[in-house]
Amino acid sequence: MGDSVVNALDGVDLHVAAGEFVAITGASGSGKSTLMHLLGGLDRPTSGTLEFDGQLLSAMNEKQLAELRNRRIGFVFQTFNLINRTSALDNVCVPLMYTRRSFSKKTARAALERVGLGKRAKHTPSEMSGGECQRVAIARAIVNEPALLLADEPTGNLDSKTSEQILQIVHELHATGITILLVTHEMDVAVQADRIIQMKDGRIVEDTAVDDHRRDEILRLNRDSHERMFRKKAAARTGTSTDNHSSEAKRVG
Ligand SMILES: Nc1ncnc2c1ncn2[C@@H]1O[C@H](COP(=O)(O)OP(=O)(O)OP(=O)(O)O)[C@@H](O)[C@H]1O
Ligand SMILES: [Mg+2]
To answer: What pLDDT shows up at residue 3?
Structure first.
């Protein structure tokens, strides 16, 4: 608006190795989605460079970029982004239509089977639960066997049990060698990755490898932070004061 310029990302230097499972966290507006869009070739940076598998994205034209996205990168979004009146099977066929002159629906059916929805192929998204829709979206993301899966808050609209099912699928995909980048607000989701990147105001402020010890520590800090927030809210309601040291616990490191 007006003259104001928002640097959605600023000075980000990030290398993700093939086969990693990375979680990206940070407050709303910190630049997580912007980073995902750039990494997936959906947006181009105003400055700086992006490389995928040794290829410079800025050197690609729109057609080459679209082809890279379609063949090598799978996207999953919080709101599924499925075609509502089209069957699950046909939704999963969409990326195949772009990459192959002819294709067999068997490929799409196999992708649906990988996410446990082989029997729901004919159903449309409006006949499915949120978790099932997200599984269709994952099947669509992996139908071309991408090297990289970018998931932006894939469990953001789901209850905790359904979220676990989706994360289980993400783990299974990771185990087959797919590189995973997953954006999440929730620390108990983030700790399932091998590395957590925390963003703030368009910058990476933490980049932490996660082992079992670190995972326990992060979860404990997160729990303490929630408890403090809960107490603070309760105190605000009753008019009593409480401590004000929750910011430290919200940080990953
Ligand atoms: N199309 C746009 N035009 C202008 N500014 C934008 C645009 N998209 C995002 N921004 C700004 O860039 C910054 C980063 O936004 P981004 O959507 O990447 O944040 P986020 O971390 O994904 O937030 P959320 O958790 O709410 O999804 C914010 O300040 C936002 O307002
Ligand atoms: Mg976002």
So the answer is: 64
Q: Classify domain 21-210 by CATH number.
A: 3.40.50.300
Closest CA to 67 of 100, 96, 99, 92: 99
In our burial notation (b when 16+ CB lie closer than 10 A, e otherwise), range 84-101 reads eeebbbbbbbebbeeeee
Indicate the domain borders of the chain.
21-210, 211-253
Lookup result for tokens 């994205």: 57
Please identify which residue in the block is written with the tokens 């954006």. Answer: 183
Rounded to the nearest 5 percent, the helix, strand and coil shares of the chain are 45, 15, 40
pTM above 0.70, yes or no: yes
- How far apart are the CA of 7 and the centre of ligand 2, in A? 15
Q: Is 138 helix (H, G, I), strand (E, B) or coil?
A: helix
% of the chain with per-residue pLDDT over 90: 75
The residue count for the chain? 253
Does ligand 1 lie within 6 Å of residue 29's CB atom?
A: yes
Q: Which two tokens stand for residue 67?
A: 């082809």
What is the C-alpha separation between 241 and 173, in angstroms, rounded? 47
Q: 152 CA distance to ligand 2 centroid (A)?
A: 7
Contact call for residues 144 and 71 (beta carbons, < 8 A): yes
What confidence tens digit (pLDDT) does each residue in 174-219 have? 999 999 999 999 999 999 999 999 999 999 999 999 988 988 888 8
Q: Pick the residue whose CA is nearest to atom 30 on ligand 1.
A: 29
Q: Is 31 in the pocket of ligand 1 (CB under 6 A)?
A: yes
